[in-house]
Amino acid sequence: MQLKIVLSSSAKLMSLIMILERLLQQLLQATVNCGLRRMHW
Fold first, then answer.
1. How many angstroms separate the CA atoms of 37 and 10, rounded?
2. What is the pLDDT of residue 7?
3. How many CA atoms does the CB half-sphere of 15 hold within 13 Å?
4. CA 11 → CA 15, 25, 30, 37, 40, distances in Å?
5. Which position among 25, 33, 34, 41 has the lowest Cβ density within 10 Å, counted as fewest Cβ atoms?
6. pLDDT tens per residue across span 1-41
7. pLDDT at res. 1
8. Would the CA dihedral through 12, 14, 15, 17 be positive or negative?
9. In angstroms, rounded to a whole number, what is the distance separating the alpha carbons of residues 25 and 9?
10. What is the DSSP code string of 1-41?
């Protein structure tokens, strides 16, 4: 029983980490794009 709980919580944690990584990537990309635009100006 406890193992199942641990597995489900770790799966939730993994999906949360994946979502956070995607958000960070998007944020980084947006920052880089803004920086490039600023450099061109």
1. 40
2. 82
3. 5
4. 6, 21, 29, 39, 44
5. 41
6. 688 888 899 999 999 999 999 999 999 999 999 988 887 76
7. 65
8. positive
9. 24
10. -HHHHHHHHHHHHHHHHHHHHHHHHHHHHHHHHHHHHHHH-
Locate 8 and state its tokens. 């489900």
Report the amino acid identity of residue 30. A
Tokens of 39: 């450099």
Residue type, 3: L
Tokens (6 digits) for 19: 């979502």
